[in-house]
Amino acid sequence: MHFIEARDIVKRYSNHVALKGVSISVPKQSIFGLLGPNGAGKTSLIRIINQITAPDEGYILIDGKPLIAEHSQRIGYLPEERGLYKKMKVGEQALYLAQLKGVDKNTAQIRLKKWFEKFEIESWWNRKVEELSKGMQQKIQFIVTIIHNPEILIFDEPFSGFDPINVNIIKEEILRLRDEGATILFSTHNMASVEELCDNIALINSSEKILDGRVDEIKRQYRSHTFELKLQDLKSPARSFIPANFNLLTESTNNFGETILRIQSKEAEDANKLIQTLLPHAGIVAFSEILPTMNEIFIEKVQASQNLSAKS
Amino acid sequence: MNKTWLILQREYLTRVKKTSFIVMTFLGPLLMAALMIVPIVLASLEDVGKKTIAVIDETQWFTGKFESGDNMEFIHVFEDLETEKLKVLNNEYDGLLYIPLPQLNVPANAEFFSRKQASLTVRAYVRNVMKTEVENRKLMASGIDPNLIKEAKTTINIVTIKLEKDGSESKSFTEVQLGLGIFSAFLIYFFIFLFGSQVMRGVIEEKTSRIIEVIVSSVKPFQLMMGKITGIALVGLTQFLLWVVLTLGIYGAFILFFGPEVNPQQMSSMSGMLNQGTIEQPELTNQSVAQIFEVIQSIDFGVIIFSFIVYFLGGYLLYAALFAAIGSAVDNEADTQQFMLPVSLPLIFGIVIANFIVNNPDGSLAFWLSIFPLTSPVIMMVRIPFGVPYWELGLSMTLLAAGFIFTTWLAAKIYRTGILMYGKKVNYKEIWKWLSY
Fold this sequence. Notes:
- The complex is a heterodimer of chains A (312) and B (437).
- Chain A is an alpha/beta fold.
- Chain A has helices at 42-49, 90-100, 105-118, 134-146, 164-179, 191-197, 215-221, 238-241, 271-278, 294-311; strands at 2-12, 17-27, 31-35, 57-62, 65-66, 75-78, 152-156, 183-188, 200-205, 208-214, 226-232, 246-253, 259-265, 283-290.
- Chain A folds into two domains: 2-220, P-loop containing nucleotide triphosphate hydrolases (Rossmann fold, 3-Layer(aba) Sandwich); 224-290, 2-Layer Sandwich (Alpha-Beta Plaits), CATH 3.30.70.
- Helices cover 66% and strands 7% of the residues of chain B.
- In chain B, the strands form two sheets. A four-stranded mixed beta sheet of chain B has the order 2-1-3-4, with helices on one face. A two-stranded antiparallel ribbon of chain B has the order 5-6.
- In chain B, a hairpin with a 5-residue loop joins β5 and β6.
- In chain B, α2 runs parallel beside α8 (221-258) and α6 (174-208) packs antiparallel against α14 (376-383).
- Chains A and B meet through α2 and α4 of A and α1 and α7 of B.
């Protein structure tokens, strides 16, 4: 069952079309990555799900029901452009934002206290936001995003602007929130975090979705059947015994005198065949398939679609 | 609705807790009370103790003409000018009046020596006495009895009485209505700008601090805008009411403590002093003061205060929505200029034209401007003390309400697009496009 469904979303602005019929489906209790270069339309889509803007065509379903104003209380949103009232005190502000999300004052106070203890920032309660460093402000911002225990969390570029320590805290929290039942959608440029966190992704380029699916399936789909082998006691040059339908890509030697080979299968052939051929010629220390990183898939797909649009 | 209430609360509380608000709240009444109290204090301080003034009268015309009173004592002295001047320096007299022999046959000049600047009262009195005496002598020389002239002199005092439809009559005193009208018009103008620009700055603050996106993911932009506008309207009302209460409080306390010393006589002598010309006719001044009080009592303050609140709120709501739209379209305050001028032009025009309106408060220009919502808050306040038919008030207020609903609708369209636009120089063409979304 998909928890968030966006169907054929079209969004036009005065000078350009931000989304040309984009559809995504986010399964319940999973982490969904929305990828794409700058200006692809990620933020437009996120704003539509948050009801900050309305789509010109298409619709959004939450848990099978059309999106309505009341849903905003079940969504926690951390925008890319972050900010708080600078002159307001931290505690007062957190309470205010929590109440805007429909949490009553007492509950908000109790929950905030817990979070402030967890992040060890109780002493900030009565300080003005402008007195805090940027990293500190972002912690506050993260807390107010999740203070109403939302079922859906939407983060726009959650890692930009955070220092590595805070990035780790946020990552842990994202995983924990999913395990506790939240459905999470985030947009990012950070491909490493995608592989680490995401169950599903959609890749948007020039207002169109060009790829989506489960991360492991996509990686498998884009496998190039390239294997990396670590060999020792090579009896004859590698080139001489590699089977005809395999290509030797690179050959090198590491500090232990071991030979590292990268071999690509021309016809997506079984790795067993390769190993069988190798066995008489060398000792196999390690064998692994090289799957493309999300970064490589991202660049390949974006460039391919750009070439396509350049031709047409 | 609940969320609009939350926003309203925040907007209100953060503003009334500000130091600048508290300072303004107490400073305003102090200044206003000072404006009312200082003249009274000055009037009671004026001419403390008797002033002795020596007179060298070389013409011999004015012997016995300067009458000594409570405040001044005149002594005729006969030594030469330089000796008497020294006596002034030695504190023997407070002043020395020197009337030299005239070059022609009539004395028309006098010199007054004193250590301090001669007081206005003394100068006015001396001038008055000399003038009367010289005039009398001239008349006698022409064979006319000065008493005849005195008897012929008449003071015409016109009491203007306004006839009401129901047959009742009320005395009017144009100056009072004029002052009241202009004053309340200025107050409305000032309040609309003061609190309207607070709305604008509030919107810019939310935009530049980037909190706007968090807020509009929880509430509709319209709710945010209305919460902010109404919250600040309440700040304005609070400030206004505190000013009224505190001003009256300070003034009342002053009268309570110094009351016995202050009486209308002093007030009138004060107003006479300020207006040098009227000192010659103290009776008239007293009469005017009495008349002013009578007129003030006849003015319907209920209607004025009620209309003030209606026009302040209506005018403020109408302009605040536009100011909010301006705030949403720009990234910082410096960029607001190009939009501020056209929006505030009707208001500025209203205050400029107000001076002409008071001369003809029932003219057709006055009528139309007090009906048109963009100018009515200012112009109608000018007209109300002169009396405005209820149907005109009703029409004007209805149109004002319609006007602010329209500007709010218009502003909301600009606002919801503008608040999410960062780093873009916006011009009128762009805003026109936002309107058609």
